């Protein structure tokens, strides 16, 4: 039975994602994303499940930054999970009593219209996770009056649901990934995604375009690009890329090795099956057979067979 670390405590959306991704795994709650990834890195867990991207908010920066540094980890699976937030209170609390709300920063952003409309004067404070907020609010002497979290977190910690589906959009989805220590990659399925982090060799006009060209000329479709600060000063950024295909596909392999040539560093974060099951459109001349045929043609002309 694999042991998987996750952003805890019990009742987070991440736990729900883990239960779906690995129903038989032993679940090890961690205080934050960094701790969950470190548990996987140091062998206290066999892997971890962490949030990576939200359909409203974009990349989950704590995860993006943690995956870009420290001992490398590989993404081996992904899951798309609809997220529905509830307003949870201790029994007896009424709407008009709510002055201080506790929740995860991602939930603060996703429920901004609701909190501004219903509680214009309330303070909304960041919690380590939505379930950590619910757990805290359940304490009789908590300084917070309400948590925004999954309904299940309310059940876990004895809270009452005062309002349901309080997110600004009812169709919000978070993408979660399962990571493992480096090892064999998941087999290509024909519906795969690859992730990596690329660091610029030097800052010059067109540097980003050079990276994008490596994908474009091989017909590799990007599904996410995100710049994150390196921390070395204003204007210094590195780039997260997600794109269609598996590194075993010729066009993807060529694009990744092209990036390796033009960047100072490329950290490969894995090739894994896509949760949505979509297959890439293969542009003319970029199928595996096209690359193989071109390679044998090149070998022939190099041998003087024209
Ligand atoms: O706090 C949680 O319940 C989490 O699993 C984290 C998280 C996130 O980081 O995006 C996951 C899904 C929601 O978008 C809100 C919070």
Automatic annotation (TrEMBL):
Ion transport as UniProt keyword: no
Catalysed reaction equations from the record: prephenate + H(+) = 3-phenylpyruvate + CO2 + H2O
ACT domain sequence ranges: 196-273
InterPro entries membership: ACT-like_dom_sf (IPR045865), ACT_dom (IPR002912), Chor_mutase/pphenate_deHydtase (IPR008242), Preph_deHydtase (IPR001086), Preph_deHydtase_CS (IPR018528)
Metabolic or biological pathway: Amino-acid biosynthesis; L-phenylalanine biosynthesis; phenylpyruvate from prephenate: step 1/1
SUPFAM superfamilies, A to Z: ACT-like (SSF55021), Periplasmic binding protein-like II (SSF53850)
Enzyme class label: lyase
MF annotations from Gene Ontology: prephenate dehydratase activity
EC number: 4.2.1.51
GO BP field: L-phenylalanine biosynthetic process
Keywords: Amino-acid biosynthesis, Aromatic amino acid biosynthesis, Lyase, Phenylalanine biosynthesis
Domain of life: Bacteria
Name assigned to this protein: Prephenate dehydratase
Organism: Streptosporangium carneum
Lineage, uppermost ranks: Bacteria, Bacillati, Actinomycetota, Actinomycetes, Streptosporangiales
Gene name as annotated: pheA
């Amino acid at each position: 039975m694999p042991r998987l670390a996750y952003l805890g405590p019990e009742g987070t959306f991440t736990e729900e994602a883990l239960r779906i991704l690995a129903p038989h795994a032993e679940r090890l709650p961690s205080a934050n994303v960094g701790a969950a990834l470190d548990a996987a890195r140091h062998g206290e867990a066999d892997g971890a499940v962490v949030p990576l991207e939200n359909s409203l908010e974009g990349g989950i920066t704590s995860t993006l930054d943690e995956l870009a540094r420290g001992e490398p980890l590989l993404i081996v699976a992904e899951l798309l999970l609809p997220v529905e937030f509830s307003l949870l209170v201790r029994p007896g609390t009424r709407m008009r009593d709510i002055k201080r709300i506790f929740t995860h920063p991602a939930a603060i952003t996703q429920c901004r219209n609701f909190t501004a409309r219903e509680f214009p004067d309330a303070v909304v404070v960041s919690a380590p996770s939505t379930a950590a907020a619910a757990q805290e609010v359940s304490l009789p002497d908590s300084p917070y009056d309400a948590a925004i979290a999954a309904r299940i977190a309310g059940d876990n910690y004895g809270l009452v649901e005062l309002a349901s589906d309080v997110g600004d959009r009812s169709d919000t989805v978070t993408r979660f990934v399962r990571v493992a220590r480096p090892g064999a990659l998941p087999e290509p399925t024909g519906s795969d995604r690859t992730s990596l982090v690329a660091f610029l060799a030097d800052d010059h006009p067109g540097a980003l375009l050079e990276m994008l060209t490596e994908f474009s000329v091989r017909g590799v479709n990007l599904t996410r690009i995100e710049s994150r600060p390196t921390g070395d000063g204003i204007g210094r950024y590195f780039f997260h890329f997600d794109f269609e295909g598996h590194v075993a596909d010729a066009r993807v392999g060529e694009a990744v090795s092209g990036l390796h040539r033009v960047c100072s560093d490329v950290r490969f974060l894995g090739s894994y099956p896509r949760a949505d099951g979509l297959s890439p459109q293969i542009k003319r001349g970029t199928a595996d057979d096209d690359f193989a045929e071109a390679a044998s043609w090149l070998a022939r002309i190099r041998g003087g067979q024209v």
